[in-house]
Specification:
Rossmann fold, nine-stranded mixed sheet, 22 strands, 19 helices, binds glutamine, globular
Length: 540
């Protein structure tokens, strides 16, 4: 079939869960056997979120092909299991950059370069790029921001044009809005939705489907009212109420027919409703998991979204281990040797988070030391792994001044050093070691044990994991670490970079230079998180 395009826009307020609705719709269409991709177009000017502080925009998610992207791509992958690429994440900055580069090359032959048509043409080209490279039945495009934002105007104009060019059955708009409840009046209010749809209509876009975010059940009467005011079929007004977990959303959307209404509007035949067996089994396990395991997350961003993928990976692994993981955020900035015991009291394990820069790193080192000396299962990720290495160098190898070059350029014991290939890099954006690289596991190690039952055949010891870093374990110290008990059990074969360290004497003490959290999905939890959570439970 010819590729069809579904656009997901949002109105009234941000943070309504557009990413989850996009991921859910993708999941439902995929379950019907369609080839799909989900992509995110963000109106901000940064080329990518790589240079954004997580307080601004949450976690930076990294694709296997090394693009730093919006955290919604994490939802797309966790829901569908389909890997996204650099073509799935586009910002205004990237659009302008390519247009300006073309202008500098002289490609426009003296023309005046304008938002319409040059920027909008480039947006349209990018929207269709994925489908030009692979066979796709549906391309779902989520537009970041909220209708009415000045900066999203060119995107909406591009969608309007594209809908016209493609014709009615090849493009469709799903608009997500908010229906607030006024407690004093005891009423749900639809006016913001009406206004938001009018705004879209004013831009020449008539949404075919409305998804109404709400904290209360919407009556048929209310849905009918919205339908009439907004030129939408009653059956195309879907509610998205608060649910106990984001993973309930696809099932809820299926029950209300979000996928079938989209298919109908696009002239597709509606076959049998997919059962979503493994997905429902996951939800069932999740509901049944009543025992709790408490895991500390030691990081510097007191904002859930900053460690989104880690939270989700822990939740997946908990579910498959039949436990509920209760994550306790501990701000590493305020961790001291004096309060650590009290802060970690009752915890069955600790994750030491990724990060950049000096703030909060001593707290991470203290957490690593506490976990190591109290045999508390510990998982260090990226910067977390580097802090485990520094702690070991300081307290076991006896190099009290051991450090990372990132934190102390002058340290005589640079157990974490700038990667060779990074030494001449001056630009910050998109220049780290990014994306998936191979890692060879040492036979008999804890991590090989953790991976093998899940990935590849026995004895197959190469795994592929995603990275985002500039600094690395300094190989000059490798033998010393190994002799003292910290083993380098995962190595990148090409570059001989240390990818994983573990201390096998402990119940579970592992640091990874890569980010396993980017590749844990609902149906395929990550083996290292599985093994870590198992160890945490075992110790209870
Ligand atoms: N700041 C460290 C580095 O660049 C770790 C990065 C991370 O945790 N993602 O190597």
């Amino acid at each position: 079939m010819e590729t069809k395009y579904i656009f997901i826009t949002g109105g009234v307020a941000s943070s309504l869960g557009k990413g989850i609705v996009s991921a859910s719709l993708g999941k439902l269409l995929q379950a019907r056997g369609y080839r799909i991709t989900i992509q995110k177009f963000d109106p901000y000017i940064n080329i990518d979120p790589g240079t954004l502080n997580p307080y601004e925009h949450g976690e930076c998610y990294v694709t296997a092909d090394g693009m730093e992207t919006d955290l919604d791509l994490g939802h797309y992958e966790r829901f569908t299991g389909i890997e996204t690429t650099r073509d799935n994440s586009v910002t205004t900055g990237r659009i302008y950059l390519s247009v300006i580069e073309r202008e500098r090359r002289g490609d426009y032959l003296g023309k005046t370069i304008q938002v319409v048509p040059h920027i909008t043409d480039e947006i349209k080209r990018r929207i269709q790029l994925n489908a030009s490279k692979q066979q796709l039945d549906f391309v779902i495009t989520e537009i970041g921001g909220t209708i009415g934002d000045i900066e999203s105007q060119p995107f909406l104009e591009a969608i309007r044009q594209l809908r016209w060019e493609l014709g009615p059955r090849r493009a469709l708009n799903v608009h997500l809005t908010y229906v607030p409840y006024l407690a004093a009046a005891g009423e749900l209010k639809t006016k913001p939705t009406q206004t938001s749809v009018k705004q879209l209509q004013g831009l020449g876009i008539q949404p075919e489907v409305l998804v109404l975010r709400t904290e209360h059940d919407l009556s048929d009467e209310l849905r009918t009212k919205v339908a009439h005011f907004c030129n939408v079929d009653v059956e195309a007004v879907i509610q998205s109420q608060d649910l106990p977990s984001i993973y309930e959303v696809p099932v809820n959307m299926q029950r209300q027919g979000l996928d079938t209404i989209c298919l109908k509007k696009m002239g597709e035949e509606i076959g049998v409703t997919p059962e979503l067996g493994p997905w429902r089994a996951f939800l069932e396990r999740r509901r049944k998991a009543t025992l709790t395991v408490d895991i500390a997350l030691v990081g510097k961003y007191d904002l859930q979204d900053a460690y989104k993928s880690i939270h989700e990976s822990l939740a997946h692994a908990g579910t498959y281990n039949s436990y509920k993981v209760q994550v306790h955020f501990i701000n590493s900035e305020y961790l001291t040797s004096e309060n650590i015991a009290q802060q970690l009291a009752g915890m069955s394990g600790v994750v030491i988070c990724p990060g950049f820069g000096l703030r909060g790193i001593e707290g991470k080192i203290i957490a690593a030391e506490y976990a190591r000396t109290h045999d508390l299962p510990a998982f260090g990720i990226c910067l977390g792994m580097q802090m485990m290495v520094i702690e070991f160098a300081r307290n076991v190898l006896g190099y009290s001044d051991a450090d990372s070059r990132e934190m102390n350029a002058e340290t005589p014991h640079n157990v974490i050093d700038l990667m060779e290939e990074q030494k001449h890099i001056t630009q910050m954006g998109g220049t780290m070691r990014l994306g998936a690289y191979e890692c060879e596991l040492r036979d008999g190690s804890m991590v090989a044990e953790a991976y093998n039952p899940h990935r590849g055949t026995a004895g197959h010891t190469i795994v592929c994991e995603r990275h985002r870093h500039r600094y690395e374990f300094n190989n000059a110290y490798r033998e010393e670490f190994e002799a003292a008990g910290m083993q380098c059990v995962g190595i990148n074969p090409g570059a001989d970079l240390v990818e994983i360290v573990e201390v096998p004497q402990h119940r579970w003490y592992v640091g990874t230079q890569f980010h396993p959290e980017y590749s844990s999905t609902v149906l395929h939890p990550h083996p290292l998180f599985m093994s870590f959570v198992r160890a945490c439970i075992g110790g209870k």
